[in-house]
């Protein structure tokens, strides 16, 4: 019985005969030598057939192999630095499982709409394969960071009775006899409750925003990680955000060299992501916009273009803090030095990628929070449990949310977040 191995492990089998299960990625012929590129999900392997060396009945199977035909190949593993992955297989046998007919994604150029319509197949190609391998490692780095620092994972509900950041961007559904329910925009309110029980917590899952936005930074369904820490004020949570981003970028750089080569991503800018990060106030950021000829009105929130201009002034992520309270959520604590500002911050990624983190110190006083809820015309009965947190042992606490897809787009140097998630959901796309 031949050992059944994955391509990524071939270095352990040089000189030995093995069996590989996979699909035909491409093929080419050079006289009496034929090459079949086989992929198995872990890598791409060059398989070689030579007339007179390979059995004739196996050599002739080359003609029936089409792109994405599934097969089992067996042969001797050789080390060859010129081959993809550094190894090749000298074929002894091919067992065809299924011949693919007219695979629609060929080596020629295809438009992005065509590729997105065929996303279920495009995942097999090198570029999306590399992006999603990096996503996997980014997610692992995120979990490792918090797990190794004593944070407890809390799974926040996806169906919620109320909004945490404004009702205009909620997906609504009927919830049996209890009225309306909404798909979660954020798990933040729930991890605030958990932070009062466990001290340091985070949630990590899908979130939903019904924004009619067509920008390259927006998805209607995306993943967000949200830590929350009891007794942290604004300074401490900004420090945590810096440490976190430095860590995850370094981990991905360490584990994804091959994938960055596939994407032709220049990683030199990422190697500069070392603390401390620059920090500027909202007012400082407004001055940057004015100096760069942007007609920006003080008191507005920053749009995509504004964030791009601000972030392009720095080689590292920049933290913008103390936004006007009027443009921030009801739960953010006001600055005791000036009540018109919120103790909030955003982190903008360099290279023009804009916001990847939003966070704040939370309002911890019962009467003040009740007042804010009323000012925002939110239903008090939906937040009675949230107000309870300010009645029974309230403490200062803070947290933030990092969007996985925006962060991955920056790390990979992608033009659009639609490539950062296996099956993107946008206002004009819900299939496949």
From TrEMBL:
What UniProt keywords apply to this chain's record, in alphabetical order?
A: Aminoacyl-tRNA synthetase, ATP-binding, Cytoplasm, Ligase, Nucleotide-binding, Protein biosynthesis
Q: Which reaction does it catalyse?
A: tRNA(Asn) + L-asparagine + ATP = L-asparaginyl-tRNA(Asn) + AMP + diphosphate + H(+)
Main subcellular localization, coarse class? cytoplasm
* Top-level EC class: ligase
Full protein name? Asparagine--tRNA ligase
Which EC numbers does the record give?
Answer: 6.1.1.22
Assembly and partners?
Homodimer.
Query: InterPro entries of this UniProt entry?
Result: Aa-tRNA-synt_II, aa-tRNA-synth_II, aa-tRNA-synth_II/BPL/LPL, Asn-tRNA-ligase, Asp/Asn-tRNA-synth_IIb, NA-bd_OB-fold, NA-bd_OB_tRNA
**Domain Aminoacyl-transfer RNA synthetases class-II family profile: where?**
132-422
An example molecular function term from Gene Ontology annotations: asparagine-tRNA ligase activity
Q: Which PROSITE patterns match?
A: AA_TRNA_LIGASE_II
Q: What does the UniProt entry say about where the protein is found? A: Cytoplasm
An example Gene Ontology biological process: asparaginyl-tRNA aminoacylation
The record's Gene Ontology cellular component field reads: cytoplasm
- Classification via SUPFAM superfamilies: Class II aaRS and biotin synthetases, Nucleic acid-binding proteins
Q: Which family does it belong to?
A: Belongs to the class-II aminoacyl-tRNA synthetase family.
Family matches, as Pfam families = tRNA-synt_2, tRNA_anti-codon
Tell me the Gene3D superfamilies matching this sequence. Answer: Bira Bifunctional Protein, Domain 2, Nucleic acid-binding proteins
């Amino acid at each position: 019985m031949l050992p059944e191995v994955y391509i990524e492990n071939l270095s352990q089998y040089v000189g030995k005969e093995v069996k590989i299960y996979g699909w035909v990625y491409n093929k080419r012929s050079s006289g009496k030598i034929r090459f079949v590129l086989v992929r198995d999900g872990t890598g791409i392997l060059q398989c070689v057939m030579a007339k007179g060396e390979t059995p004739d009945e196996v050599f002739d199977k080359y003609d029936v192999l089409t792109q994405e035909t599934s097969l089992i190949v067996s042969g001797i593993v050789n080390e060859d630095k010129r081959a993809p992955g550094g190894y090749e297989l000298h074929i002894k046998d091919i067992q065809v499982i299924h011949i693919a007919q007219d695979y629609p994604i060929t080596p020629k150029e295809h438009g992005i709409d065509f590729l997105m319509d065929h996303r279920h197949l495009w995942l097999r190609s090198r570029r999306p394969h590399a992006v999603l391998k990096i996503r996997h490692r980014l997610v692992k780095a995120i979990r490792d960071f918090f797990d190794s620092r004593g944070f407890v994972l809390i799974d926040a509900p996806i169906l919620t009775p109320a909004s945490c950041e404004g009702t205009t961007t909620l997906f609504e559904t009927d919830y049996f006899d209890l009225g309306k329910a909404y798909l979660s925009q954020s798990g933040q309110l729930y991890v605030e409750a958990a932070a009062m029980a466990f001290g340091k917590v985070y949630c990590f899952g899908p979130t939903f925003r019904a924004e009619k936005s067509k920008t390259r930074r927006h998805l209607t369904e995306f993943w967000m990680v949200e830590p929350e820490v009891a007794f942290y004020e604004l300074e401490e949570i900004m420090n945590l955000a810096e440490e976190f981003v430095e860590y995850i970028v370094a981990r991905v750089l360490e584990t994804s060299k091959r994938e960055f080569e596939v994407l032709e991503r220049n990683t030199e800018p990422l190697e500069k992501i070392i603390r401390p990060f620059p920090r500027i106030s909202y007012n400082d950021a407004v001055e940057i916009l004015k100096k760069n000829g942007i007609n920006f009105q003080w008191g507005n929130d920053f749009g995509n273009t504004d964030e791009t201009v601000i972030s392009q002034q720095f080689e590292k992520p920049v933290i913008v803090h103390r936004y006007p309270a009027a443009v921030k959520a009801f739960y953010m604590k006001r600055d005791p030095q000036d009540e018109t500002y919120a103790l909030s911050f955003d982190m903008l990624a360099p290279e023009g990628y804009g916001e990847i983190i939003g966070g704040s110190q939370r309002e911890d006083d019962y009467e003040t929070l009740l007042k804010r809820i009323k000012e925002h015309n939110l239903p008090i009965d939906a937040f009675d449990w949230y107000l309870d947190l300010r009645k029974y042992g309230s403490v200062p606490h803070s947290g933030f949310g990092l969007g996985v897809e925006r962060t991955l787009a920056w790390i990979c140097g992608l033009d659009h977040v639609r490539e950062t998630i296996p099956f993107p959901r946008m206002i004009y796309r819900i299939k496949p």
